[in-house]
Amino acid sequence: MAWLQLTLEATHSNSEQLSELLSQAGAASVTLQDAHDEPIFEPPPGSTPLWKELLLTGLFEADVPIESVLHFIKSNYGELPSYTLNPLEDKDWVRAWMDDFKPMLFGQRVWICPSWHTPPDPDAINIMLDPGLAFGTGTHPTTSLCLQWLDQNFQKSPFKTAVDVIDYGCGSGILGIAANLLGASQVYAVDLDPQALLATQANAEKNHVEARMHTFSVTEFKRQYQTLQCPLLLANILAGPLVDLAAMLASHVSPKGNIVLSGILAEQAETVSTAYQPWFTIDDITQEGDWVRIAGTKL
Question: What is the pLDDT of residues 95-110, one digit of tens each?
Answer without folding.
Answer: 555 566 788 899 999 9
